[in-house]
Automatic annotation (TrEMBL):
Designated name of the protein: thioredoxin-disulfide reductase (NADPH)
Family: Belongs to the class-I pyridine nucleotide-disulfide oxidoreductase family.
Residues covered by the Pyridine nucleotide-disulphide oxidoreductase dimerisation domain: 461-569
GO biological-process terms attached to the record: cell redox homeostasis; cellular response to oxidative stress; glutathione metabolic process
A GO molecular function held by the record: thioredoxin-disulfide reductase (NADPH) activity
Pfam (any one): Pyr_redox_2
Domain FAD/NAD(P)-binding: 109-441
Reaction catalyzed: [thioredoxin]-dithiol + NADP(+) = [thioredoxin]-disulfide + NADPH + H(+)
Domain Glutaredoxin: 20-83
Keyword match Protein biosynthesis: no
C-alpha cells in the first residue's frame, strides 16, 4: 500500500495514525537521543528510518523539508504538530510544551501578560517578535475619585511622563524669573494656567495611549482591555468594562500589574484626598495644597506645584527620601524650604473633613501636638501597594511576601508556580522604576522564547528625583557604604558648585552639589555617585556606566571634562 502513496501522502498518513512520529536515520546519534527521551517518558512512538527505505526515504526527507523547512533528522511530530529536531524536542520537554502537545491540550495563547504598563508591554512585544502568540490584558480600576486612563500603565499615564512634563513647566517658570537678566523683556508678573497645562499634557498622553495600541497591533499582540483573574495556572477570567466575561488560556503568564497609591487609614482620606493617580489630569486648579509623604512622589509633586504658583505644605512622617543619601535628602529639603515650601515634621494626618460641612483637617505632630490646617487639596503620596489582592493568586498558589503583598520571584523572575512569572513594580525586593520593568520584561521574553540566559541586573541602577534641584544617584548612599564597608574604609569626595546658567542672577547661590563615595581598600572604587543640580538625570545616566564598570576616583579625576557643563565639576576630599 505504501508503494502506491507518494511521499506527501505517506507523511500525512503517519501523522494521522501515530501520536508521536520520529523521522530518523538508523545511524544518527541525535535520533538515538530523541528516541531515548520518549522511552524515558514511556511514550510510544513510530520511528521511520529514512536511510533504510531507499529512494522513498529521500523523497520523504524532501517532503519534510517543504513542510517544515527542516532538512535534518530527527524530525519529530507530536499529535500532528511539528516539534523540530533533537535540541528543539529536548527544549520543548524542558519548558513543558512537549507534555502539553502529548496531552493534546491546546492553549489559546503561548503567553498572556497581565498588565499593559512598562514591563508588560516590553515583554509582550519581545515575545511576539519571536513568533509567539501573545495577549495583553490591561484594565484600569478607577481611583476613589473616579480617575481612569488608557493603555501604557503608570509611567505613561500617571507617573514619569506627566510628572516630568510638569517638572518642565516648573523649570520654565524658574527660568522666566531669570529671563530679564538674559535680555528677555518679560512682564514682572507671569501667570501660569493650570488647566491649559493639564490639557496639553493629557493630549500628549492620549497620543501615547494610541501609539501603544498601534504598536501592539503591528506586533500581532492581542490587546484585551479587561481585568484578568486567575482561575487555574493556565486560565484567566477576563472581565471588560461592560462586564462581559471570557475565559482564556495560555501556557505561560507574566504578571505585570504594578501598584496603586495607598491611602492612610484615617477618616476622610478616600472621600476628600487625591493621589498622583488624580493629580496629572485634575480638571481644576488645586489651590492651596497639603502633600502628605516625603519620598520621590511627594517631593517631586510639591516641587512642581510650588513652582507653578501653588501654596504647598509637605507633611513628613519621619525623614525625607528614605533609602537615599540623607545629606542630599536634607539639602533638597533646605532648598525647597528656601524657596517657600512649608514642612510640617514629624507629623501624620489623623483626620480630614470637608470645611464647608464641618471642621478643617487635623494632623498630629510626633510630640503629640495637634496641628490644624485648611487646604483646598490634600495629596497623599504615602507609598504604593502592589495590585495582587484581587487577581486570583490564592487560587493557584503564587507566593506573596505577607508584609507588602508583593510577588516573590527567583532570579529568573519565576514565581512559586512554574509557568507563571512576574516583573516590574509588583515583585518583591526590587526597584520600582520604568527602565527596570522594561529590561526585566525584555530579558524574560528572550529567556523564555529565544534560548537566552541573560538575567536582569538589579544592581547599580541609576535614578533621579525630579525635585526643583534634581538629585541623580547611582550606587549606594554614604550611610549604606559606611554600613557595608565601615567608616574607616570610606573616602568621600565632594564639592558645592554654581552652574554657569545660574551665574547672571546668582540663583540658588552655590546650592548645587556633587559627591563620590569611594572604598579605600578597593583602590577608591566609586560605590556611590550623587549629584544635585540642573539636568542631574542626564549627568547621572552617563556616569552610571562608569560606576557599573567599576570606575575608581582616579578614573573620574583622569577624565577631562566638557566645558562649560555642570558635569565637569571637580571634587575634593571631605575634610570633615
Ligand atoms: P505599571 O506601569 O503600573 O502597569 C501595570 C498595569 O496593569 C496598569 O495599567 C494596571 O492598570 C494594569 N492592571 C493591574 N491589575 C490588572 C489586572 N488584574 N488585569 C489587567 N490589568 C491590570 N519611574 C521612573 O523610572 N522614573 C520616573 O521618573 C518615575 N516617576 C514616577 C512618578 C509617579 C507619580 C509614579 C506613581 C511612578 C513613577 N515611576 C517612575 C515609577 C514607574 O511608573 C513604575 O516603576 C512603572 O510604571 C512600573 O511598571 P509596571 O509594568 O511594573 O507597572
Ligand atoms: P515610598 O514608599 O518611596 O515613600 C512613601 C512615603 O510616604 C515615605 O516618605 C513614608 O514615610 C511616607 N508615609 C508612609 N505612610 C505614611 C502615613 N501613614 N502617613 C504619613 N506618611 C506616610 O513611595 P512613593 O509613593 O514616593 O514612591 C513609590 C515608588 O515609585 C518609589 O520607590 C520609586 O521607585 C517610584 N518613583 C520613582 C520616581 C523617579 O524615578 N523619579 C518618582 C516617583 C516614584 P516614612 O519614611 O516615615 O516611611
Amino acid at each position: 500500500k505504501h508503494s502506491e502513496m507518494n511521499a506527501a501522502e505517506r507523511v500525512a498518513q503517519l501523522l494521522k495514525d501515530y501520536r508521536v512520529v520520529i523521522f530518523s536515520k538508523s545511524y544518527c546519534p541525535f535520533c538515538v537521543k530523541v528516541k531515548a527521551l520518549f522511552d524515558s517518558l514511556h511514550v510510544e512512538y513510530k520511528a521511520l528510518e529514512l536511510d533504510l527505505i531507499g529512494e522513498d526515504g529521500v523523497a520523504i526527507q524532501q517532503t519534510l523539508f517543504e513542510k517544515t523547512k527542516q532538512k535534518t533528522v530527527p524530525n519529530v511530530f507530536v499529535n500532528g504538530k511539528h516539534v523540530g529536531g533533537c535540541d528543539a524536542t529536548i527544549q520543548a520537554h524542558q519548558d513543558g510544551r512537549l507534555a502539553e502537545l502529548l496531552s493534546g491540550v491546546q492553549y489559546d495563547y503561548d503567553l498572556i501578560v497581565i498588565g499593559g504598563g512598562s514591563g508588560g508591554l516590553a515583554a509582550s512585544k519581545e515575545a511576539a517578535s519571536f513568533g509567539k502568540k501573545v495577549a495583553v490584558c490591561d484594565f484600569v480600576v478607577p481611583s476613589p475619585q473616579g480617575t481612569t486612563w488608557g493603555l501604557g500603565g503608570t509611567c505613561v499615564n500617571v507617573g514619569c511622563i506627566p510628572k516630568k512634563l510638569m517638572h518642565k513647566a516648573a523649570i520654565i517658570g524658574e527660568d522666566l524669573k531669570d529671563a530679564r537678566a538674559f535680555g528677555w523683556d518679560v512682564p514682572e508678573q507671569v501667570v501660569h494656567n493650570w488647566t491649559n497645562m493639564v490639557d496639553e499634557i493629557q493630549n500628549y498622553v492620549k497620543s501615547l495611549n494610541f501609539g501603544y495600541r498601534k504598536v501592539l497591533k503591528e506586533n500581532t499582540v492581542t490587546y484585551l482591555n479587561a481585568y484578568a483573574q486567575f482561575v487555574d495556572a493556565h486560565t484567566v477570567k477576563v472581565t471588560d468594562k461592560k462586564n462581559n466575561v471570557q475565559h482564556i488560556t495560555a501556557r505561560d503568564f507574566i504578571i505585570a500589574v504594578g501598584g496603586r497609591p495607598r491611602y492612610p487609614d484615617i477618616p476622610g482620606a478616600k472621600e476628600y484626598g487625591i493621589t498622583s493617580d488624580d493629580l496629572f489630569s485634575l480638571k481644576y486648579h488645586p489651590g492651596k495644597c497639603l502633600i502628605v509623604g516625603a519620598s520621590y512622589i511627594a517631593l517631586e509633586c510639591a516641587g512642581f506645584l510650588h513652582a507653578v504658583g501653588i501654596d504647598c505644605t509637605i507633611m513628613v512622617r519621619s525623614i525625607l527620601l528614605r533609602g537615599f543619601d540623607q545629606q542630599l535628602a536634607e539639602m533638597i529639603g533646605d532648598h525647597m524650604m528656601g524657596h517657600g515650601m512649608k514642612f510640617i515634621r514629624p507629623c501624620v494626618p489623623t483626620k480630614i473633613e470637608k470645611i464647608s460641612d464641618g471642621e478643617p483637617g487635623f494632623g498630629k505632630m510626633d510630640s503629640g501636638e495637634i496641628v490644624e490646617g485648611e487646604y483646598n487639596t490634600i495629596l497623599f503620596a504615602v507609598g504604593r501597594s502592589a495590585c495582587t489582592h484581587n487577581i486570583g493568586l490564592d487560587n493557584i498558589g503564587v507566593k506573596l511576601n505577607p508584609s507588602n503583598g508583593k510577588i516573590i520571584v527567583d532570579k529568573e523572575e519565576r514565581t512559586s508556580v512554574n509557568n507563571i512569572y512576574a516583573i516590574g513594580d509588583v515583585i518583591d525586593g526590587k526597584l520600582e522604576l520604568t527602565p527596570v520593568a522594561i529590561q526585566a520584561g525584555k530579558l524574560l521574553a528572550q529567556r523564555l522564547y529565544k534560548n537566552q540566559t541573560v538575567l536582569t541586573d538589579y544592581v547599580n541602577v541609576p535614578t533621579t528625583v525630579f525635585t526643583p534641584l534634581e538629585y541623580g544617584f547611582v550606587g549606594v548612599s554614604e550611610e549604606d557604604a559606611v554600613a557595608s564597608y565601615g567608616k574607616d574604609d570610606i573616602e568621600v569626595y565632594h564639592s558645592f558648585y554654581q552652574p554657569l546658567e545660574y551665574a547672571l542672577t546668582d540663583r540658588d547661590n552655590n546650592k548645587c552639589y556633587g559627591k563620590l563615595v569611594c572604598v579605600k581598600s578597593k583602590g577608591e572604587r566609586v560605590v556611590g555617585f550623587h549629584v544635585l543640580g540642573p539636568n542631574a538625570g542626564e549627568v547621572t545616566q552617563g556616569f552610571a556606566l562608569g560606576v557599573k564598570l567599576g570606575a575608581k576616583k582616579s578614573d573620574f579625576a583622569d577624565l577631562i571634562g566638557i566645558h562649560p557643563t555642570t558635569a565637569e565639576v571637580g571634587l575634593h576630599k571631605d575634610s570633615g
